[in-house]
Amino acid sequence: MTTWIKEAFMYWQQKSQKKDVLQSLRVSAKVVLVSKDGKVLMMRKANGIPDLPGGKVDKNEDLFDGLKREIKEEIGLKAKKFKFITSWIKIKNGARDRLVIVFEARTKAKAKAVDIKLSKEHVWAEFVDRGGFEKIENIPYGYANAVELCFSRYEKRKAKL
User: Fold this and answer.
1) 156: left (phi > 0), else alpha (psi -120 to 50), else beta?
2) Global confidence as pTM
């Protein structure tokens, strides 16, 4: 087990022992948006970091209302029927820790037919297949893992047809 995984696990054990600490964590809700043809929407922030649609859920805001609001603000789309994928605590030196929760949502249209209206927060957004995804560098580990899970789910569904 690598050092950072061990440290994160130990940190989680410490946090999980204190329910009040968990309840005070800031929350970010993200979505892996999968098109009808199995492509995933990837984005890039202005600072160059790859990203997924979604963001900070406001205090006292419903998790799904916050996620829907962020998706509308960032890419101009409506989404619903979210399926949980994964979560983790993002530990950032010099900043408050954050609980990141990632969901999957599907579009009814193929990637080319989806009209993305990108906010100023991001400089690039595109639906990519697995090959295109693998070419994107520096994807945060948690996001990469969530996207891989969605590709696997899509491929299993497609194989059943």
Assistant:
1) alpha
2) 0.84
